Amino acid sequence: MTRSANMIIKNGxxxxxxxDLDGEVMDLxxxxxxxxxxxxxxxxxxxxxxDASGKTVMPGxxxxxxxxxxxxxxxxxxxxxxxxxRSVRExxxxxxSGSGYTIPSVYKQGYDYAAxxxxxxxxxxxxxxxxxxxxxxxxxxxxxxxxAYLVLGNNWFIMRYLKEGDIEKAAAYAAWMLRTTKGxxxxxxxxxxxxxxxxxxxVAGLDEPNxxxxxxxxxxxxxxxxxxxxxxxxxxxxxxxxxLGHPGNWETTRDSLTIPSGLAPANxxxxxxxxxxxxxxxxxxxxxxxAQFNAYGGTSWRDFCSGAPELARYLNQTEDVVIDSGSVPFxxxxxxxxxxxxxxxxxxxxxxxxxxxxxEMECGxxxxxFLYLKTSPVHSVQWAVGxxxxxxxxxxxxxxxxxxxxxxxxFTRYPDLIAWLMSKRARDETARECHKWAYDRSSLGxxxxxxxxxxxxxxxxxxxxxxxxxxxRKGHLGPGxxxxxxxxxxxxxxxxxxxxxSIRSAFGRPxxxxxxxxxxxxxxxxxxxxxxxxxxxxxxxxxxQELEMMADVKEWFKYYTVGFANYPVPExxxxxxxxxxxxxxxxxxxxx
Amino acid sequence: xxxxxxPRGRIGIMVEAEAISPDVFQGLGIGEIEELEVWQGPERHPxxxxxxxxxxxxxxxxxxxxxxxxVSRVKRIGQSMKSGSIEVHGSAGMHTGTGMSGGKITxxxxxxxxxxxxxxxxxxxxxxxxxxxxxxxxxxxxxxxxNGRIVIDGNAKSQLGGGITGxxxxxxxxxxxxxxxxxxxxxxVVRGSAFRGAGAExxxxxxxxxxxxxxxxxxxxxxxxxxxxxxxxxxxxxxxxRLTGDYAAFKNPKGSLLLKEV
Lengths: 592, 262
Fold this sequence. Notes:
The complex is a heterodimer. By secondary structure, chain A is an alpha/beta fold. The longest helix of chain A is centred in the C-terminal third of the chain and has 16 residues, at 453-468. Chain A is globular, with a radius of gyration of 23 Å. The mean pLDDT of chain A is 96. In chain A, helix 6 (156-163) packs antiparallel against helix 7 (167-181), helix 7 (167-181) packs across helix 19 and helix 14 (414-422) packs across helix 15. In chain A, 33% of the residues lie in helices and 22% in strands. In chain A, the strands form six sheets. In chain A, strands 1, 2, 3, 4, 5, 21, 22, 23 and 24 form a nine-stranded mixed sheet that branches. An eight-stranded parallel sheet of chain A has the order 6-9-10-11-12-13-16-20, sandwiched between helices. Chain B has two helices and 19 strands. Chain B has a 13-stranded mixed sheet with strand order 5-1-6-8-9-10-11-12-13-15-19-18-17. In chain B, strands 4-3-2-7 form a four-stranded mixed sheet, with no helix packed on it. A two-stranded parallel ribbon of chain B has the order 14-16. Chain B is elongated and about 60 Å long. Chain B is 4% helix and 33% strand. Chains A and B meet through helix 3 of A and loops of B.
């Protein structure tokens, strides 16, 4: 896709957790955009050489959960002109102009991620009906490699098949949907609850059957987790748990995470295996989204407190869960989720402007502007919880650092999160500035842990890549990996955790962001604008099962506002389509 | 230092000139002022393309800008200014004094829409009429002017003081629709009349109308009568009816609507 790009990155401190490299000083080689063990003499001569002496070298950042493309993101842009007014990016010879702080335009978004050292970003929630829109926006996003998770937790077909106990048909449907919409994995938002929102209701517990379909959240979570492993998808079920945003919800979260217990993780994607030291395939069967919003204690907003210690205690005992944090760095945000009723709750609390959408037979969504204030007791606890979920879970391979952009905050605040995680002093400074509930109603004040650069590399690239099943080419720097490298002006030998501002500025403005062996950003400035790839999965089931399932789909399609022929996303919608095949049928292979 | 800008002729596409601000001019020589960039559509031009510039040291520490003529096709004059003064001997365009936090702007003619938008300090005086959104919030935002004072001697159009949280707006003439919409603080006095929606979605602050309000917003309840009510240093003479609202938007609103009895 790009012209041959050979590169040598010399003498950097390399942090590559999947290859067990903890700051080794070494050279990295990239040939034709991919990492190799060495370059031949001739290739070395025409290679671009970067001197990374005294600098920190990591694989390109991977954001496994952000809201960056699609109908609800655009609804946020449309309803928030005030978010764009003061955040403007001028065009340059190479780049488009753009605007928007919490919900930047697609161009600005791509540039901002790349300038911060991130090269891969996955859209967290793509309603099937909005797949075309989502792909259109991803298509216009420069530089980044992307994919989008398909929202299936309140899908009428899935709920119907699960009610009938027909897990094979549910799997056949999910497989067809992923291929049809060019989706990447299965996302489940407030299972069984969003359907009730169509009647202005929600579900109260994991065993409450919803209206009409009479399936429970437990049945949907278990069913989709089973479907996920039957299909052998690269990512496990990605769960936005029930009861999100409510005091005391940590118990619902823990109980939800036990539901897929006993399933074996089965990433059966047909990809070239790299030579990583650690297994690059996932070990989890459920990936919990934005744990911060689902780790609350107390019974009301009056006795609201952190539930993160309790949730972390469970996660420390289990091996089959990964969480992303959904941390809150304070400041402006725009909340947007497929969880319609949760968004309505926020509207009732804040009185803010609120957009709500019912996506026909599939799901729902809501959007609402939000401002996290240091003066607010509840927001201060949310800040603490967002760091607790990353610091109290001992094994970094169970955690991923996000802000659930733009729900907890903007992705450009990641450097602040890293500074808080690496520096107790940074946390104490912020705790002094915000409401006393931050430390009084959480355990954060007593946490001494300061994470290492190695752990930063785990929670911002290695683990997100492995959790979603792209670690065969992302999140590491072994031979065969994509040549995505970030070089930070941070000398591990003189790193001082008591100097959080130097950590913040180093992670905010990397020296170099390299994508496929090309420098795309240099000290915050975009210097090349290649087109990214679009990952999606193409799982298959038995042909007869698929035919039976298709008969149901065609019969029910009369309830849709679109015609059956207009539903699929054609491959030409995608820039550099990069399918990941799973269980390819023999005849299909032969036909090719 | 006093800088005089003399418009060189009719302007086609409107010019965006946030560079015309005492904070920007301060300490600059005439050549540097002439070279300041302004936008016209997608193009940048030096200020001297639209104005003849004269600079006169007057010995005072204050930076004064005097515009001799009509600049109704020049937007953003005095945007974000913090100190100094601007006098316009003519009319000024949209966004005059937008976001200003200090200093003084006086416009002898009219101003376009969005004058004093989200201002947080200083004094903006308009001897003529104003357009829409005087002292209001930007589109989509609910927080307008937070401090300072705007005085319009003539009439203003719709949504004057939208989202105002502090400061004062005094209109000598009449206003059109939705004056003080979403006001949560501060004071608005309209000497003339208002049309519909005055004080709609108000939760705090005071809106006084001395003339007639054509259609009073339905979410306001009577809260007594007052003789010569006091509003800081603004004089209100006569008997006023006080209404509280807007109950249509809030459970316990503190907005006051003062209507002069005629």
